[in-house]
Batch of 4 targets.
Target 1
Amino acid sequence: MRSLPAFVLATVLGLMVASCGLWVMTSQDTKPSPKSNSDKAVLVIMRTTSYGAGATISNYLDGKIIGQTKGKSYFFTEVTPGKHSLVCRNENMRPHEINFEAGKVYYLQQAIYMGMMAARTEYDTLNPQIFEEQKPECDFVVFDPALAEGEDEATVDMEEVKEERAEQLADQPDYFTKVDNLRGF
């Protein structure tokens, strides 16, 4: 009977560590703003809250990891023009389909909230002005492919993404509209 509290504590601590996830980013000393490129789009993902600071949220483009957020942080990546699947994942998965145009910068805010066993996540739109206001408070991080090599978290199963999106669209048909129709600046 006395071992029950120790078991509960070990379980809770294990779940907390598991929610942190593998970190495949490196922190940078600078805090640059994204610049548009004439033949590519640029995607910016920013987490503006320290709520759930230890939780690592992974972001995937067409099934491959492009970056993560942890605490107040942001990253950006170039994207070839066209329609792409964008997914944020931790305890839950939020799949979106966004049409990227060359020469444009796309801003998303990574939202985080309490889940059952780990943090849950979703995207919201962000504009360049709010990005610039929040940037001084956030760490700029860059994806390091060497840290992700051979890790299960480096990819997401696209069939699972399609199934999850279909289920979520059936439950909330208007949920994806705002992010799926994201326009660049």
Note: The longest helix spans residues 3-20.
Target 2
Amino acid sequence: MLVFLGKWAACIEPKGGLGCHGMKYRHLILLPLMAFSLFSSAKADPLKVGDKAPDVTGITETGAKLNFGDFYKKQTYTLVYFFPKADTSGCTAQGCSLRDAYDQLTKDGLAVIGVSHDDVDAQAAFKAKYSFPFTLIADPDQLVSKAFGVPNYPMVGLAKRQAYLIRNGAIIWADYHASTAQQAADVLEVIASQKN
């Protein structure tokens, strides 16, 4: 697409310009610049253990606003997990892992929030299809993802799979390569270690 736009721009130049034949030289300049801008855009670093958990507001699968700062205070632990795309195999396995262990997680004082760049309708359908008992956040504008410093997969713009366990408003565990089917087991292990 960018090559097409480049040729179009070259072809409408007045006489004496590079014209369509000078396009090969223009590619030599444009492609490195485009690659540099793609990979050099400033990104926040993901949050680390000990960092304050973001007090950001997101939109739930019902379309309601959810203030994360208020939500953290309602229980001992909050798990905020990020997944690339609703209703895909890995994201479904991750969500189902948390759903299947939800009774144990809540017994341990934990609430779950799932976040992806999907819109409200996609999150609502995903939650309904798999009977997730927890909140999903629609984050197409990436406000929540950016607040946590969650990077995107290059070229596709989907959030990387990460998970953060929060207690007393601070990150106590960060998983930068969050598991899919083992997500709940990983979280339960961390909670168990907190009790010892």
Note: The two ends are 57 Å apart (CA to CA).
Target 3
Amino acid sequence: MLTSANPAEKRALQAIYEERFGIPARAMEEWFVYSTGSVLWGLRDAPHLDEALAALRFERTGLPLLRRAGRFWKPTTVALQVVGKFVLRNMLELSRQELETILIEGELRGTRADVEQGYVALTGPDGVVGCGLYLDPDEDHNEGLLISQLSKARWSGMISSAVQALPGR
């Protein structure tokens, strides 16, 4: 039996998606959100969802929306890809070359962006590719830094695709 996420978890979800990315709260109103401790999951709510789920055996079901990263909640790549069309702010568009660099090296130095420091939605030529962590320039580094937060399991396929797309291949 799935138990609904607690109020603090639901507030965290709203804060990340609505306040950080500008996604209207109504875009997620029809979701049933539950927690497995380190992950908040979402399912499209429907009449009799409880009965339907009770009849099934599963470990996890739904879309991972947020994952606990230390003390903070991080939006998942797959969730940002699903809701990407609703993102209004803190979105960083990357060229193919920048996307290739961040996929291979895990970071992109010298990034100056008109976004708030923190998690950002990364977009490429084909739409939202996932999540990055943007750090403003400071006394330790005089250039902005973008750190990939893309799932390492997804990296291998993306890197292969990026290398295949290189001119001369």
Note: The chain has a mean pLDDT of 83.
Target 4
Amino acid sequence: MLFFSSTCSNAGENSISFRKTGRLTPVSEQCPKCGAPRAETACPRCGLVYDEYDPDSVNAKVPSAIVELWAHVEQHWEDEGAHALFVEKALRADQAGFVAACYRQKGDEPIAAQQLEKLTQRLVQALSARMPVSKARGAGAKNVLYVFMFAIVAALVFLIFAETMK
């Protein structure tokens, strides 16, 4: 989906973007996808092209129950149980990106940073559990060793054969 964008910038928070939709949306100083400091046209960290980003299309894929849980978390920010329930339900709905975006929008807020760290650890752990310990990696190294040994033996046989032919 293409957007026509014109950005007016007076100072960070006052920046606006007008898209083909005709809505004015605030332009944050951070990438809406990864939270990196915002560059001119695209994020230097994740590559998101800002003019092609449509937050409504991203949020449309998030189940309403998850969005409601996030609203509950925001109302009960100090409640660890609310955070835990939100993260658990969102991950079960395959919405890790939404969870991260919600906490990233809070900037340097300590609880948000803590929740992002927990989320990262949990996702790394889940990814590690899904990755089978590959015998192929060990076998690949073993195969390289066999090929190297074969090459040495072949070279020795060739040298011996060449010496006997003189």
Note: The mean pLDDT is 77.
